[in-house]
Predict the structure.
Amino acid sequence: MIWNPDIECMPREQMRELQGEKLRKIVAHAYANSPFYRKRFDEHGVHPSDIRSIDDIVKLPFTIKKDLRDNYPFGLMAVPMTDIIRLHASSGTTGKPIVVGYTGRDLDNWSEAVARCLTGYGLGKNDLVQISYGYGLFTGGLGAHAGVQKIGATVIPTSSGNTQKQIQLMQDFGTTALACTPSYAMYMADEIRKAGIDIDRLKLRVGIFGAEPWTGAMRQELQNKLGIKAYDIYGLTEISGPGVGGECECQNGTHIWEDLFYPEIIDPVTLQPVEPGQKGELVFTTLDKWGMPMIRYRTRDLTSLNYEKCECGRTCVRMGKIMGRSDDMMIIRGVNVFPSQIEAILLEFPQYEPYFLIEVDRVNNTDTFDIQVEVRPECYTDQINELVRLRQKLASRIQSVVGIQPNIRIVQPNTIERSEGKAKRAIDHRKFE
Amino acid sequence: MLIRQLSVFLENRKGMFAKIARLLGDNGINMQAFTVSETEDFGIARIITPTEQTDRAMALLKANSYAVSVNQVLYIKCDNVPGSMANIMEKLAAAGISVEYMYAFSDSKSSVSRVVIRPDRLEEASTIVQEL
């Protein structure tokens, strides 16, 4: 099912014209109404009159997270506060929170984007969607909420946490779709299993998972454990929130709603656009966000874009899985390591739990690379040799994929943090002064 | 005879054994024998409790988030004199039975030593040592 076929299946040339038109308007708006962008454009020697088509976007300067922090709280707003009807803020896991503001039109566009995602997952009026993303300053809860209402499905606004109650309501209400982070879904699946609840008796059929990167193997596991189809929903606070893109029934890439959010891929070092299809850092320009436009915002997410028409009929560009972040990538003994790689490998081993914690330090001028893992309850055997062999197999597999051998530490059950939000997967103890 | 042994997974860190010893002690469970095998980062504590306390010890450890399993092991008494252990082990070796691990305890005053053996073929090993 397709919510807005005119846009989602628009011929590519026509889409590029539409994007060009919208870019001209939003750049003119930003320049005229935001002192931040006016100053930035002037310094960069670019004027709105230089922007004639979407191809001219590369003339514009980038915006980064630091710009939002430096202009905390309202410095990037491009309308009077009287026109801002909602504020959200990021969870601030890496410093001062960032604040975003929305006009009524911005919120409409955002819910339109979420509605397209949900329809793509096969959801409609008959569905009951349990939203276990946090409600509040975080965009997850309220963002998903508005989209569910827009498609006429029923919202169950549980917010995050209180897992036992979540599971109870899921059974009592006959929840058909669950929206939360994939790590929380995994935790919930384990709790359901522990409670001895028969998955076949749940009405759950769709998972709406996002707000943190996850892998194909994790998708398989969630689909098996919960008896659902698990779909990616992509988004970030700076660009509006969840729903910037979503998968379709093909589960072969996340469609970006590019009439609203124009994506580019750049080389994070040279900052130049990469060849189509190549991996690099994702950059977004909001083409129809007026309260706080984001021009060429560097997401730090590493991925690639596929412009081929999808089998579902949509022409909107598909984004690959997030392969890491250009800023949480760790360089260990000169090798690039992404926590998502470790996650993918762990899920190849049925003996291990999907939780892990990477710890990096520097001892005698050499980087240490420790990974804490837990094995499944039935795999903590009396046989020390079995555990040693299992540990060695994992270490070898990681070495063959990542390029360096980690020190695997099997820890006691339930000692690695199960996150109800974004999971903390790596700690870097190295000091680089 | 065959008895039940608890195997507890422990990280190789300070105070880990103290914690389970305290947990069992506070709950009136006595450890009659134990051994710890360790690698650099983890170990397995193998513990024998009085038979009637084994289930409770297992439940207690599990409830405290320990990974614990119950295994059958061979429990024998042998004369506390030179050469008696050699007699037993020779018999097992002759039958082609290999031992995964074993531990013994005794003091110089008692006439018998007590030995716990984890062989690969439990029943057969049990028959063999009974014949001694």
Q: What stands out?
A: The beta strands of chain B are 2-11, 33-38, 42-48, 68-79, 99-105, 112-119. Chain B has a mean pLDDT of 90. The CA atoms of residues 97 and 121 of chain B lie 6 Å apart. The two ends of chain B are 13 Å apart (CA to CA).
